[in-house]
């Protein structure tokens, strides 16, 4: 799963949101590293809807413009949970390797009395 897709699904995990709300949530979740343009977002939302991961929750007319809210489906929540588990396993493996000196045993937390 690509990072923008992961962040879009994450943005919709708590509650339904309209496009601009998703864009802002993704930017916040990524600490500004991922900034989606509307065309990119709506293309992704269309693809995710075709895959059954998100769906339209409702539509509202605000100042004469239609605002569409999207929500995560049960399949979308399951896909997001599976991706979280995969990323967690990968991060744990990377962390373990970082604690291990080249050719040596893994380093754990400092033992009392050891300097």
UniProtKB/TrEMBL annotation:
Residues 101-115 have a biased composition (Low complexity). InterPro entries: Metal_resp_DNA-bind_regulator (IPR052509), Tscrpt_reg_PadR_N (IPR005149), WH-like_DNA-bd_sf (IPR036388), WH_DNA-bd_sf (IPR036390). Residues 8-81 form the Transcription regulator PadR N-terminal domain. Residues 95-115 are annotated as: Disordered. It holds the Pfam family PadR. Gene3D superfamilies: Winged helix-like DNA-binding domain superfamily/Winged helix DNA-binding domain. This is PadR family transcriptional regulator. It comes from Krasilnikovia cinnamomea.
